[in-house]
Every structure is written in C-alpha cells, then in structure tokens.
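Quick review question:
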C-alpha cells in the first residue's frame, strides 16, 4: 500500500521560465475545443493546457518566445494576452 509520503507529486514545466515545479505552484492556461483561451486555476477543465508560474514575467517571456502558442497549438490574439495578464495579476495578488 502506498502512503501519502510515498506518492509522487506531479511536475510541470513553466512555458515562461522553463523551470519544472510542482503542478500546484503553477496556473494552467487552457485552450478549449471551441477555441477559447482561458486561465484554469482548478486545472480540471477539458482542453489543451500549458502551465505558467504565478507572475507576469513568465507570461511576458512565454509571449515573446511564442511558447504558449506552440504549446496550445494555435495563434493567440493580443486581446487574449491582455485578458490573461489581467487575470494572472488578480491570481498573483489575491
């Protein structure tokens, strides 16, 4: 029988800084099947996901290198980046 101490903690890579961290320390950016792109703080919604640290610097680095676009497999318009920045700043501050 596996105890809690022996369970593996899921690791994910941040698209901005490329560091591996515990999944709970990152926020998921989600592309839904209908094409919408959102932050998914629960990490449980259906769709293609990519992960970011909880700071705007990682979002800006991912945007500059187009890492989010590659991870999600779609072009991301500027207005979606603006909404993501606003939502991430709310998550970061609160």
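Suggested answer, residue by residue:
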């Amino acid at each position: 029988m596996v105890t809690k101490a022996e369970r593996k903690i899921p690791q994910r890579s941040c698209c901005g800084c490329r560091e591996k961290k515990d999944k709970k320390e990152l926020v998921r950016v989600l592309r839904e099947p209908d094409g919408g792109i959102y932050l998914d703080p629960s990490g449980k919604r259906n769709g293609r996901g990519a992960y970011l640290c909880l700071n705007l610097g990682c979002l800006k680095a991912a945007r500059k290198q187009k890492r989010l676009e590659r991870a999600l497999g779609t072009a991301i318009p500027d207005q979606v980046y603006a909404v993501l920045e606003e939502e991430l700043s709310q998550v970061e501050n609160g």
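Why it works: The chain has a mean pLDDT of 90. Strands lie at 11-13, 20-22, 27-31, 37-40, 48-52.
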